[in-house]
Structures are given as C-alpha cells and as structure tokens.
Amino acid sequence: MNPNAFHAMSYGVYIVSAWDNGRPTGCTANCAAQITANPATVMVSINKDNYTNRCIADCGHFAISVLAENSDPAIIGTFGFRSGKDFNKFDAVAYQVRDTMPVVSDSCAYIACRVIGTMDTSTHTIFLGEVIGAEVTSGNTPMTYSYYHKVIKGKTAKNAPTYIPTQDQEDGKWVCSVCGYEYSGNIPFENLPDSWTCPVCGQPKSVFRKK
How many domains does the chain have? Predict the structure, then answer.
C-alpha cells in the first residue's frame, strides 16, 4: 500500500470545538465533510486520545470552525499540539458563542451540530452531526490541508487521521520539537529574539533543535 495516495484526497483545516462542563475546548482536525443536504448532516473524525473526543460525547454537540488561508497559523498549533485536559486553549484564541457553541472568531465559516450518531474505528470516533446552525463569517478563502503544508510549512499532528511518520526534515534546519515546524526565515535562527515563538504551535524559541 502506498500511503501517499491518501494525499490526493481533499482536506481542510478546522477547529472542532465542544463544551467541557461549561468550559470551551477543542482540537485541530482535517477530516470533516457534509454527508447529506436535507436534513443537513456533517461528520468529523476525532482521535480517541484527544480530550475533545470525550467532551463531544459528553455534551452531545460540536462545532466546526473553518480556518481561512489568512487565519493566524498559531491557532492550528494551539489546538493541535496541546491537550485541552490541562490547557485552556480558548484563553489564547478569541471566540464567540454562536448557535450555543464556541466558535473561533478568526475563521471564515462555522457549522454547529447536534450529535445524532457515531461510528467507531480502532483509533478514531466519527461523529455524525445534525446541523443546528451555520454561517459564512468572512469572504476569505478556506484553508486546505495542502496549503497548510506547502505554504505555512505546518506538520501533521500524530493524532490526525492523515498522519504518516516521516523523516523529511532537511539537515541543518532548526526544527520545533513540539510540532515539527522547520524554521526557514531570512534571519538566522540564532539571531531571532528570545521572545520569538513558533508560528504554528506558539512554543518558545528554546524548544527548537537543530536537525
């Protein structure tokens, strides 16, 4: 089997959110799709190790915030490389409550859903959601997973459905030990200020290692 065949499929970049006993939480996801038009039904695939999985199951609802190409890349890292179990992700990211659900403000659309069914796999739960609200919040271009990799130079979190272990970092590059982002700026890495943070996961300069 050639896993690169899966890269030919289309994916987006989303923040899937839920309530955790009144506290908003969520995770980055790339596998979401519309299932039916009437009644409007969508699905999301969430790793069982993600804290958000349990929160969706407990509260019975979820929301999908569709990130745009010009959304702050740090949002992806905040929700993709830290656990909502011990970190309040929405403290660092602006949000609004729309159709009873927390949605990321820096997004181009959202879809709020009530869970109506689940499908189980060995590693992920597929949540089926009946849409209770949806809105286009800006005219910005939705971010594709290809754009995330090729333009933002982001890496795939290990809990993502599309994660494939690779050793493709270039020798001599400074690499974030948290999310795998490779620094490729014009300023030598050593000359970056100590206050500089990873543009993907928001971690400090000190977590970078030279490949």
Answer: 2
The two three-digit tokens of residue 4, written as one number:
């690169």
196 class by beta-carbon count within 10 Å (0-12 exposed, 13-18 middle, 19+ buried): middle
Structure tokens at 191: 């000359």
Q: Using one digit for the tens of pLDDT, what is the confidence trace for 54-95?
A: 999 999 999 999 999 999 888 988 898 778 788 899 998 999
DSSP, res 142: B
In a domain, 160, yes or no: no
Helix (H) or strand (E) holding 75: helix 73-80
For 204, the domain range is: 166-211
Cα gap 184→160, rounded to integer Å: 24
> What angle is formed at CA 122 by the lines to CA 118 and CA 128, rounded to 5 degrees?
15
Asked if residue 109 belongs to a domain, the reply is yes
Tell if the pTM clears 0.85, that is, is over it: no
Do 73 and 172 sit in the same domain of this protein? Answer: no
Whether 123 is in a domain gets the answer: yes
* Beta-sheet pairing, 95-98 with 32-37: unpaired
Q: Sheet holding 40-47: strands in order across?
A: 23-29, 14-20, 61-66, 109-120, 124-136, 40-47, 32-37
- CA gap 8, 64 in Å, rounded: 23
* Nearest in space to 111 (alpha carbons), one of 53, 25, 33: 33
For residue 71, is it within any domain?
Answer: yes
Of 118, 120, 117, 93, which is closest to residue 17 (Cα–Cα)? Answer: 93
Range with the poorest average pLDDT among 69-73, 84-88, 97-101, 122-126:
84-88
